[in-house]
Amino acid sequence: MDTQAFLRTKAERIRREVIAVAVANQAGHIAPSLSCVDILTALYYEVLRYDPRNPLWPDRDRLIFSKSHGCYALYAILADLGVVPDGLWRNFYRQPDGLWGCAEGKPEFGLEAGCGSLGHGLPLAVGLAFGAGLQKKAYHTFCIVGDGEMQEGTNWEAIQFAVKHRIDNLTIIVDQNRLQAMDRIDNIMDRTADDLSDRLRGFGLAPRSCPGHDVATLARRFGRARAAREGVPGLILAQTVKGYGLACMENVPKFHFRVPTEAELAGRRENDCVELS
Predict the structure, then answer these.
(1) How many Å from the N-terminal Cα to the C-terminal Cα in the chain?
(2) What is the domain count for the chain?
(3) What percent of the chain stands above pLDDT 70?
(4) Whether the Cβ atoms of residue 36 and residue 70 lie closer than 8 Å to each other
(5) Which of 22, 52, 72, 184 could be disulfide-bonded to 27 (CB atoms 3.0-4.6 Å)?
(6) Confidence band of 277 (pLDDT split at 50, 70, 90)
(7) Least confident interval from 40-44, 157-161, 228-232, 272-276
């Protein structure tokens, strides 16, 4: 199997795994997990310098998963790699026998930081990358953020610092699904769905857009971003669909946390599966 086929097959398997485990355990936050499956698959199976047999390897690339409401995709991959014990993943949302919460876990489980409080992962990633530069370390830091999460102020303080100090061993990946917890981002704070790109350019970054569910293209873009040293952080806007892969869930705000019914999973559209106006 060639690399592209392997990545596509792996992403589809992870997506099905996320749905199966989350529904079995009646755990919400399926939709934000499904939008980032391809992003995480491209990173873990193709791009990151990472050894799952030694998750504390000092020279590993760092991944800060800031949009931690999508953590099911991350846990599914770490379980597939053997980093997170399979039983903990299978019993997700069940205490005391499973993982609990948003991006909860220990460093030996492959998590650089717990990011349940959204909006703080990017500052952590900037600090890691800045520290690596000071110590002449070769590892690269990736940070996955949500576009709704980018409305929080600490992200912009971190970007100012990163641009000022020319931190270019950092790649920021925005899961741009254009939704946040309760509504579309342009109904909450952003003026338009494209407002984020304009603001990022204004802060001195050069955003590059990329299809967010083409896992092979994502892998190529991330690899190029890792190799580039352009004097500022790399920035990729991954154009994704929240709830990708479930017909009743795609682009529907109310499914940020809501678990689909059996009828919805079967693809039969009912009144409670119609998008909110």
Answers:
(1) 44
(2) 1
(3) 91
(4) yes
(5) 22
(6) very low
(7) 272-276
> 66-105: string of b/e by CB count within 10 Å (b at 16+)?
bbbbbbbbbbbbbbbbebbeeebbbbbbeeeebbeebbbb
CA pair distance 29, 147, nearest whole angstrom: 16
**Residues ≥6 apart with Cβ < 8 Å to 87:** 97, 98
Please indicate, yes or no, whether the overall pTM of this predicted structure exceeds 0.85.
yes
How confident is the model over 237-257, as pLDDT tens digits? 999 999 999 988 999 999 988
Q: How many CB atoms lie within 10 A of CB 43?
A: 27
Q: Which amino acid is at 146?
A: G
Dihedral angle of Cα 86, 90, 91, 93, to the nearest 10 degrees: 110
Cross-strand pairs, 176 = 239
Q: Is 274 exposed, middle or buried (0-12, 13-18, 19+ CB in 10 A)?
A: exposed
Q: What is the CATH number of the domain that holds 182?
A: 3.40.50.970
Q: Which residue has the tokens 């873009």?
A: 221
Q: Above pLDDT 90, what percent of the chain?
A: 70
Contacts of 3 (CB under 8 A, 6+ apart): 46, 216, 219
